[in-house]
Design goal:
By secondary structure, the protein is α/β, with parallel strands linked by helices. It is built from ten helices and 18 strands. The chain folds into two domains: 111 residues, CBS-domain; 228 residues, Spore Coat Polysaccharide Biosynthesis Protein SpsA, Chain A (Alpha-Beta Complex).
Length: 355
């Protein structure tokens, strides 16, 4: 998993060794990243580099350009866990910058983070093509997944949460005001991940865009997430449950309670047999998060409108297993204005603090 506090490790080549020491100590990553005005990597500085400079009688006011490693090992944004482990092992280093094709630093990988949690090779498909008609006028000039919650688009909250679990291969379906989504996320380099876009030329329902995924990209179960939810679901536990049981699909569910506001009559003809005052009925509803086996994704025909319930029913009818994964963590579907206002109140307590 990429360290997300790497921005605090940057400094200029004319910064002093004293400043580098402060950054290295404060950052707890044992490294400082030397960048130019455009964020391009010029070198790295470690505690060992500084100590070797002091042995050469450099003062603590000397520029880090005097001691930095100008040819550090780097990783591209679309690296695999195996690539990172191989590079870290062969170079005998504890950390390596992630650099895009333009030489700009977009992240930092460390051996300790790699060993804590592996990068997950499963593709993630984010559904962000809807019109958000129930949230007008907010969505008149902004796609619903880009509406800000706590100052950040809700789709970015979803993306960041998945990145924190180790996912790095993302596909986003876009249709309505697609340029606003693409302009914000671009290729994912800012987060050290890969993002590709699936363009719906016409709305294809809640599952039809799956048919536009490149077949070669779907060799593992695909995590599908609606772009209009806020949640703290444990994606690691979800994927482990799916891999353990290998169903055609795993559907995240949420308990929904509905109270009838009247006394409910049970009867036999005109004879009343029971009266229940304001009974509560319990249901499980889809939480908008799925894990789909490759064959399920491959079964979706390109360009054909299809909703997720119909896709799942096709495979249930064919005798394939579709499992539930109950979500007990925080979950909110932002479908109406009241939900959007609730998300603004919840953001600091739930999303930022993980409660």
């Amino acid at each position: 998993m990429i360290s997300h506090d790497w921005q605090a490790l940057r400094l200029r080549a004319d910064a002093s060794l004293r400043q580098a020491i402060e950054i290295i100590d404060r950052g707890a990553k044992r490294i400082a990243l030397v960048v130019d005005d455009w964020g391009r990597l010029q070198g790295t500085v470690t505690d060992g580099d500084i100590r070797r400079g002091l042995l050469r009688h450099l003062s603590l006011d000397a520029p880090v350009g005097e001691v930095m490693n100008t040819q550090p090992r780097v990783l591209p944004p679309q690296y695999s866990r195996e690539d990172a482990l191989r590079l870290l092992g062969s170079a005998q280093v504890l950390q390596v910058p992630i650099v895009d094709a333009d030489g700009v630093v977009v992240g930092l990988e460390t051996l300790s983070d790699l060993l804590k949690r592996p990068r997950l090779e499963n593709p993630v498909f984010l559904m962000a093509g809807g019109f958000g008609t129930r949230l007008r006028p907010l969505t008149d000039d902004c796609p619903k997944p880009m509406l800000p919650v706590g100052g950040k688009p809700m789709l970015e909250h979803i993306l960041q949460d998945l990145i924190d679990y180790g996912f790095y291969r993302f596909y986003i379906s876009v249709h309505y005001l697609r340029h606003k989504i693409i302009d914000h996320f671009q290729d994912g380099g800012r987060w050290g991940v890969s993002i590709q876009y699936i363009h719906e030329d016409q709305p294809l329902g809640t599952a039809g865009a799956l048919g536009l995924l490149p077949k070669e990209a779907v060799q593992r179960p695909v995590v599908v997430v609606n772009g209009d939810i806020m949640t703290r679901v444990n994606y690691e536990a979800l994927l482990q449950d799916h891999d353990r049981h290998t169903p055609a699909a795993t559907v995240c569910t949420r308990q929904y309670d509905f109270q009838v506001p009247y006394g409910v009559i049970e009867h036999d003809g005109q004879r009343i047999t029971e009266i229940t005052e304001k009974p509560v009925h319990h249901f499980f509803v889809s939480a908008g998060i799925y894990v789909l086996a490759p064959q399920v994704v491959h079964s979706v025909q390109p360009g054909v409108r299809l909703d997720m319930p119909d896709l799942l029913k096709q495979h249930i009818s064919a005798g394939r297993q579709v499992r539930m994964f109950p979500v007990h963590e925080y979950w909110l579907d932002i479908g109406r204005m009241g939900d959007f206002e609730l998300a603004q109140r919840d953001i600091l307590r739930v999303i930022h603090h993980g409660q």
